[in-house]
Amino acid sequence: MSAYTATVTVRLKRGVLDPEAETTQRSLERLGFELADLRSADRFEIDLNAESPEAAADRVDEMAERLLANPTIHDYDVTVDER
Amino acid sequence: MTVSIIGFGGSNCDRDAERALSHLGIDAEIVWHEDGLPEDTTGVVLPGGFSYGDYLRAGAMAARSPIMAEVREAAADGVPVLGVCNGAQIGCESGLTKGAFTTNESARFQCERVHLRVEDADTPWTAAYEEGEVIEVPIAHGEGRYEVADERLDELEGEGRVLFRYCDEDGELTDEANPNGSKHSVAGVLGEDETVAVLMPHPERASLPDVGPTDGQGILRGFERAN
User: Is the domain A2-82 a CATH 3.90.1150.10 member?
Assistant: First the structure.
């Protein structure tokens, strides 16, 4: 068993309205920043032990499927690093 | 006949639902989620509130609590289930109904009276109304914008599973009358079976004559019709 940190990034699917991101963008623009677009995402860092990076990724993928993301509105990706 | 109103940590419309159902002569009791669903339950209300502080996503935690497996089994056996507001979010998160209720277009919490157009009067939850009838019921939510894939929405509309849409007082669907930016102004939908329904507006807050309009009574009476 090796120790890994898996990072799950959950973001809204393209085309799904993100009112919080729009509000944040407007606020940045009010502060004088120029930007073309802003998207927000949730990031989860999960420490776990597994036989291999692939095994760690599989388990974390299931976590994303079953809880961390809502497939109706979200896409997600998983990366795994040795800890 | 006793309807179970499931209380989660952070539910806050459970007592309103109990009072409204009792007023209509429908026996109801609040059931703490850890105590499990009573075997003889004849209906389930997933009440409004902020279960688990809306952590992760509104309804996400409650949807994965053990009692929801019992609720899904009961629903499959034909026990009527009504999710209101946070209960609607829980219903979608748990797969009882399609789609998701997410952040309002305004990015604000909105508490106001809205008009709803009855889309399909041929369900237990809408049989008290005429198709196209306009009723007035309050909303109180920050995450009520209905999102669903276009093809799923086509199915829901084609199968008559959209219960209510937000409209103006004349029944017209306009952007101004759509309080949260819901796709196709959808305010409530049916699950696979017509005995399962979720909606963001609060029928239990429009059921007691002492506190205002009573247009929501017909929705709650669905528990009498679905049994």
Answer: no
Please list every residue in chain B whose beta carbon sits closer than 8 Å to the beta carbon of residue A67: 56, 60, 64
Q: Is B33 helix (H, G, I), strand (E, B) or coil?
A: helix
Contact A23/B107, CB-based, under 8 Å? yes
Residue with tokens 């209101």: B84
pTM: 0.95
* Nearest neighbour of A72 by CB, restricted to B100, B105, B145: B100
Domain that holds residue B191: 3-225
> What's the rounded Cα separation, in Å, for the pair B84 and B152?
21
- In which element (H, E) is residue B70 found? helix B66-76
Q: Which residue of B has its CA nearest to A23?
A: B107
Tell me the pLDDT tens digit for each residue of A33-72: 999 999 999 999 999 999 999 999 999 999 999 999 999 9
Question: Known catalytic residues of B?
Answer: 85, 202, 204
User: Residue B65 has what pLDDT?
Assistant: 96
ipTM of model: 0.89
Q: Measure CB to CB from residue B60 to each of A19, A20, A67 and give the nearest one.
A: A67
